[in-house]
Amino acid sequence: MRLILRNLGFYLLAFWASITLNFVLPRFMPGDPVSRMFAQAQGTMQPDQIAQLRKLFGLDHRPLWEQYLSYVKSVFTGDLGISITRFPTPVSDVIGQQIGWTLLLGGVALVIAAVLGNLLGIVAAWRRGGVLDSAFPPLLIFVGSFPYFWLAMGALYLFGVSLGWFPLRHAYDVGLTPGLNGEFVSNVATHLVLPALTIVLVSIGGWMLGMRNTMIATAAEDYITMAEAKGLSPSRIMFRYAARNALLPSVTNFGMALGFVVGGALLTEVVFAYPGIGYQLLMAVQGLDYPLMQGIFLTITAAVLLANFLVDLVYVRLDPRVRVR
Amino acid sequence: MTAIEIATATTPTASAPSSRRRGLLRQLIDSKKALAGLILLALFALLALLAPVLAPGDPSLINSTGSQAPSAAHWLGTTAKGQDVLALTLWGARSSLFVGFTVGLAATAIAILVGLASAYFGRIVDDALTLVTNIFLLLPGLPLLIILAAFLPPGTSTVILVLVVTGWAGSARVLRAQAKSIRGKDFVAAAVVTGERPLRIMFREILPNMASVVMTTLLGCVIFGIGAQAGLEFLGLGDSSVVSWGTNLYWASNDGALMTGTWWAFVPSGMCIALVAFALALVNYAVDEITNPRLRSRRARRALPERRA
């Protein structure tokens, strides 16, 4: 319980740090980025809306501490300002519209990569020196050396442009109306294959190596020798005795990865023009849409922190040693 | 270009003076993996240094018709604008290696300072530094990179600054753990009792004893630097007038190289990034194997003597 409270305090502190960063960046950066933004937005906005944005970015000549307090307050009440590129939609609405696609893409890729990677890791560790153990790690390191977005470009070129197996961009075909019917769902699924596949390809190695290394340590424990002495079947020892205990670090990694799902699919979304919040973040950067940028950054941070907190809760449940400490 | 010289010199000097570490260097050369990695790195450093000789003139000069497939005149073809891809790739090595190794060295330097100070002083200093490190580790890296790069004026120095700010925390955590275990050893206590100054203890007593860990974190940081620079520039957040592997990919993607099927515009730069990262990873893997016997592959599972505490 104390551990959870301590961590909760830490997460709140981290969130406060990112809010403060958000507050400080537009105010103290050289080159006056905010003026550039206003110069661009002048034509499309009403004067009172510009006045509101000025307030958001501290151009209203109030003392700094007052600005800071009102900024923190508006963040916690969910008021993240108004998007400039998608004017006049509020930032929170823009994020709400697109976070679903990010969660879908990231979630599917994460579950596949974690399950497959852990299984491969278990087998690799159990058959040390086998094909899986000796050939896979160098191969995975090599694949992992490629910049992620480059692999995604390659996959897009090979399977999308050259072979034409999969659609090139977006989450579903233009002209389809979203709904829970077979046509729409299968269309979304075919659009999902390539982006998800590339994420799985680059992330599976980490899962596998991590699991392999913990399994090797676990396999040296006395209770494994004991289980073998009892004459239990190898598969039972492998899964029920060794893997079950080696899985704990993977739970942590899963939680961390869950948080990064929101931000991690960013490059994928950019390459495949997938309409999630990562893609939106880049659009915001290109359109000098600072309120939207900051809103997305805060959302991603909040997701990461929340996922970490959930892992803490699960961990207390799974590992009795944490409860004692 | 002094930085390229740093680039070539880094791997050997990181494990130079004391006798214990000279052993590490010899073991590295003995290891096939590490040797392959070192040769590959030296090759790329050489290509980067010789770029003005091999491809004289401004690489972004338009000197041909666009989108030509590889031929005798243009070994790697031309971009959609009509620039020679080979020249772009050779010159790109300069910026990419420079930024990668600068980021690696700077981030590792910060990590060493933070790690040593944490371990040596302990208590409040340790708590505060650990807190800061953990916050940096927890904040999502790529979005943070993007938002920092978006607010700062574009340029190579911005890219380096932003990558150092986001890249040091992971290494700091590793180095702190290692330094802390050495801090508890008797010879450090002896040094404290004899009245040596804190700085001397940190850098002359503790640091040399964790050289191999410093080296693996350094290599990791360089890999991060090269990859993250390419990512930032690919997103258009670098200085798009600089020729580097990242901007090459940015322009290839912007000019629709994927859609028109001109694969030669984006394959070479990506391959170069991958090969450099792979070479660094090979050296890293070898250092790991030399210093951590448990990871050596020839040993059978049954013969493992060590156990996790």
Describe the structure.
The complex is a heterodimer of chains A (325) and B (309). By secondary structure, chain A is mainly α. Chain A contains 15 helices and no strands. In chain A, helix 1 runs antiparallel to helix 14, helix 5 (91-126) packs antiparallel against helix 11 and helix 6 (131-145) crosses helix 8. Chain B is mostly helical. Chain B has helices spanning 2-13, 19-30, 32-49, 51-54, 85-121, 123-138, 141-151, 156-183, 186-193, 198-206, 211-234, 245-254, 257-260, 267-291. In chain B, 49% of the residues are buried. The chains are: A mainly alpha (325), B mainly alpha (309). Chains A and B meet through helix 1, helix 6, helix 7, helix 8 and helix 11 of A and helix 6, helix 7, helix 11 and helix 14 of B.
Tally of contiguous helical segments of chain A: 15
Low-confidence stretches of chain B: 1-21, 298-309
Alpha carbon gyration radius of chain B: 22 Å
Strand content of chain B: under 5%
Q: Which sequence of SSEs, written as H and E, runs from N to C of chain B?
A: HHHHHHHHHHHHHH
* Main sheet overview of chain A: none
Question: Kindly state the mean pLDDT of chain B as a whole number?
Answer: 79
Q: Report the end-to-end length of chain A measured between terminal Cα atoms.
A: 10 Å
> Overall mean pLDDT score of chain A?
79
* Strand/helix succession of chain A: HHHHHHHHHHHHHHH
Number of strands of chain B: 0
Structural class of chain B: mainly alpha
What is the helical fraction of chain A, as a range of percent? over 70%
Rg estimate of chain A, integer Å: 24 Å
Extended strand count of chain A? 0
Largest sheet of chain B: none
**Separate helix tally of chain B:** 14
N-to-C CA distance of chain B: 48 Å
- Taken from the alpha-carbon principal axes, the silhouette of chain B is elongated
Sheet/helix structural class of chain A = mainly alpha
Low-confidence stretches of chain A: none
Main location (chain B): membrane
Pfam families (chain B): BPD_transp_1, OppC_N
Domain ABC transmembrane type-1 (chain B): 97-284
Keywords (chain B): Cell membrane, Membrane, Transmembrane, Transmembrane helix, Transport
